[in-house]
Design goal:
With 494 residues, the chain is an alpha+beta fold. It folds into two domains: 409 residues, no CATH class; 60 residues, Glutathione synthase lid domain (Dna Ligase, domain 1, 2-Layer Sandwich), CATH 3.30.1490.50. It has 17 helices and 25 strands. Strands 5, 6, 8, 9, 13, 14, 21, 22, 23 and 24 form a ten-stranded mixed sheet that branches. A four-stranded antiparallel sheet has the order 15-18-16-17. Strands 3-19-20 form a three-stranded antiparallel sheet, with no helix packed on it. Its cofactor is Mg(2+). It comes from Vibrio inusitatus NBRC 102082.
């Protein structure tokens, strides 16, 4: 695409757009306790409405599949045994899962109710159509920012319609409705109230002083920057009559206890109805500088195990974290669709799910030989089990990384078909750190949120709960808002 440098947007418009984001919490906290705006686009990406409708139909089916896989504990243990040997952190999660679900005695101790809050990320490849990039089942955040980005573009359209129109890819398109924040809060609220209601008949004696509001506990990382996205969700829950509290694993390690009926009790707060993990997807979440490393990682991960032994809604459970792993994505991609019947999908539903799964291959001697001798290296990505940005290797760099891997590490990695999404046909303006920059080759990924409690949808749209658009220059490999060159965006439909 040729670069056609266009006149910059008036500084007044950029300043007011930045002020809008700050006023509406679309920001990152800085180390000195100030805040800066999240990077954003000035106008939405385009998608064919038929493609979007297909994703709306298939994504809840993916969530249904993942939920049922996550509750198939014997399958998880057998299917993920090899990757557990190849990745120390993954081994820890598999071990913790085995502790609580490894046999009938252990399962009897598991009282948690699974709340699957999932973000399924897609890219629309120019040749192959929309395909799944990854499943996100733990710390799958930014639904609040997704809704806010849609609202930001509506604000720009209303205040400066000509400027907004000038940067649209297709002036006939219409904005896609996005209630990601509201619907995610509704799903969480519904699950918390259901847990709370199971104890309503016991609201005497030990429970007569209990707060009448359901209580939501968010497990967070200490000193993280993405707190405003989290607080937006908490505010939405508070408006629905939910009490919200925040704690780190380190704090919880000394503050949790067991109440009557396997109730989870938090010191100075009382009974907890729902636990939402925005931490726990990496080793450092279980590390405390005040304890010896081996001791702290064991103690803090046991805190998470303790939570799952109580009658409380939990996202993400160990099972959900394993079921949304890259290895499970590869196994579901490579197995015949008929096998999905084991997890409650009929053939038509299985075909829909298969339609959005990009090709994947395990890493072994045979596939490495194939990659070195026959594959088009630019058509593949090498992925490990890591969550978030920075865990993918592209193109010619893959061969070098494969040489560095030890044989016992191979099962932690997989090949995945590389997706080449549609490049926006008109330039756009990206605003980052207060500066506007014209981007001529912007590409986007769309994450669809879903919410299922105990296997049933808990939103107003059959489990669907809004979307998140992140865009980046096509020349950049990492598109995360935190870890890459990504910017917040929204969606318009043709």
């Amino acid at each position: 695409m040729k670069s056609n440098l266009r006149a910059p947007i008036a500084s007044q418009i950029i300043e007011e757009a930045i002020e809008w984001t700050m006023m509406h919490g679309v920001a990152f906290r800085q180390a000195d306790m100030t805040a800066k705006h999240c990077p954003f686009s000035i106008a939405p990406m385009n998608m064919d409405s038929d493609v979007f409708e297909h994703l709306l139909k298939v994504t809840p089916l993916i969530t249904k599949l993942i939920h049922n896989v996550s509750e198939d504990h014997d399958f998880l243990q057998s299917a993920l045994a090899d990757v557990a040997k190849a990745d120390p952190f993954f081994e820890r999660i598999v071990f913790l899962h085995q502790q609580i679900h490894g046999d009938s005695v252990a399962r009897f101790k598991s009282k948690r109710k699974p709340l699957l809050l999932m973000r399924t990320d897609f890219m629309e490849d120019g040749q192959h159509g929309a395909k799944v990039i990854e499943f996100n089942g733990i710390a799958a955040g930014m639904a609040p920012f997704g809704q806010r980005a849609t609202e930001l573009h509506a604000f720009l359209s209303q205040q400066w319609p000509q400027t907004y129109s000038d940067w649209l890819e297709d002036k006939r398109s219409t904005p896609a409705v996005n209630h990601g924040l509201d619907q995610l809060a509704l799903g969480i609220s519904n699950a918390a109230r259901e847990v709370k209601s199971t104890f309503a008949l016991e609201a005497m004696g030990a429970f007569d002083t209990e707060d009448k509001r359901p209580t939501f506990l968010m497990v967070v990382q200490s000193n993280e920057d993405n707190v405003y996205d989290q607080h937006l969700l908490e505010l939405a829950l508070q408006k629905q009559g939910i009490r919200t509290v925040r704690r780190t694993f380190e704090q919880l390690s000394t503050q949790l206890s067991t109440g009557e009926g396997h109730r989870l009790i938090l010191e100075d707060v009382g009974a907890i109805d729902l636990v939402y993990l925005r931490a726990g997807y990496q080793y450092c979440d279980y590390y405390s500088p005040d304890r010896e490393e081996a001791i702290c990682c064991h103690a803090l991960s046991q805190t998470r195990l303790f939570i799952e032994q109580h009658h409380v809604a939990v996202n993400a459970t160990f099972s959900q974290q394993l079921a949304t792993s890259k290895t499970m994505q590869m196994l579901l991609t490579t197995m015949p669709m008929e096998e999905y019947a084991r997890w409650g999908l009929n053939l038509a539903e299985a075909q829909l799910v298969k339609s959005v799964l990009a090709e994947m291959k395990p890493i072994n001697q045979e596939t490495m030989d194939w990659f070195h001798t026959q594959a088009n290296k630019q058509q593949w990505v090498l992925k490990n089990q890591g969550e978030g940005g920075g865990h993918c290797v592209f193109g010619d760099d893959i061969s070098e990384r494969l040489k560095q891997l030890k044989p016992e590490e191979l099962d932690a990695w997989a090949f995945m078909q590389r997706l080449y999404p549609h490049v926006r046909e008109v330039p756009t303006i990206a605003v980052r750190d207060g500066v506007q920059v014209q981007v001529d080759d912007l590409v986007s990924e769309i994450g669809l949120f879903t919410a299922y409690f105990d296997g049933k949808p808990v939103t107003e749209m059959d489990g669907y709960a809004g979307y998140l658009i992140r865009s980046k220059p096509a020349s950049e490999d990492e598109g995360g808002i935190h870890s890459g060159k990504g910017i917040l965006d929204s969606l318009a439909l043709n």
